Task: inverse folding
């Protein structure tokens, strides 16, 4: 499926607004409570909640800049410490999620990093009751391979997201919720690579992507 740059930009903006609404809304509510609250203990608690919401907002913005935007500079490769920090910040908001980082490369092609980050976003969303996201990569002479495992008590991947990842939604319209999946599909397809998603087995779901190194 093809989509105009303007429509795709709108999808990404909708996704950003949706994900940032909760922490920013919490900050707004916290400021209103703080203005009227006189009890010292409650004011302290309000400040704690404001701090948590501000940190969550900053973490999401850092992640989205790298996953969707031009963060990482204009070079062809990205330091994986930056990528790991972005994923850790994203998953930290949900205390039921943990990250296992099995990436040995010091840096990877920028396109591969964007695929990795967006797959991490999708993998985290599939763990509706919490769990572990494991991320591994391998860069060879000709290809860069990315593998993510989502494991938890309940793993659910929306059929629309699966279709968007593997074939660009198969001609159906792409929703803002599927913006990350469409970005993965577009990057990999443009590079001449492939995306794989397994069916859940034993509460485990695997995502994989292969990109030719010369184009990644």
Result:
């Amino acid at each position: 499926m093809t989509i105009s740059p303007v429509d795709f930009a709108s999808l990404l903006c909708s996704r950003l607004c949706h994900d940032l609404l909760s922490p920013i809304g919490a900050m707004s509510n916290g400021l209103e409570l703080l203005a009227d609250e006189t009890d010292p203990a409650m004011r302290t608690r309000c400040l704690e909640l404001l701090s948590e919401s501000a940190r969550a907002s900053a973490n999401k913005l850092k992640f989205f800049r790298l996953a969707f935007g031009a963060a990482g500079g204009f070079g062809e490769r990205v330091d994986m410490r930056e990528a790991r920090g972005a994923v850790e910040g994203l998953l930290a908001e949900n205390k039921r999620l943990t990250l296992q980082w099995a990436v040995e490369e010091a840096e990877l092609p920028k396109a591969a990093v964007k695929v990795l980050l967006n797959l991490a976003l999708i993998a985290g969303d599939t763990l509706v009751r919490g769990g572990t996201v494991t991320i591994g990569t391998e860069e060879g002479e000709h290809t860069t391979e990315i593998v993510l495992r989502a494991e938890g008590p309940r793993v659910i991947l929306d059929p629309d997201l699966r279709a968007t990842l593997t074939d660009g939604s198969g001609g159906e319209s792409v929703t803002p919720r599927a913006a990350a999946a469409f970005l993965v599909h577009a990057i990999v397809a443009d590079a001449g690579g492939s995306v794989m998603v397994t069916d859940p087995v034993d509460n485990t779901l695997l995502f994989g992507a292969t990109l030719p190194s010369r184009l990644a």
Observations:
- The chain has a mean pLDDT of 87.
- Residues 5-212 form a domain with the Heat Shock Protein 90 fold (CATH 3.30.565.10).
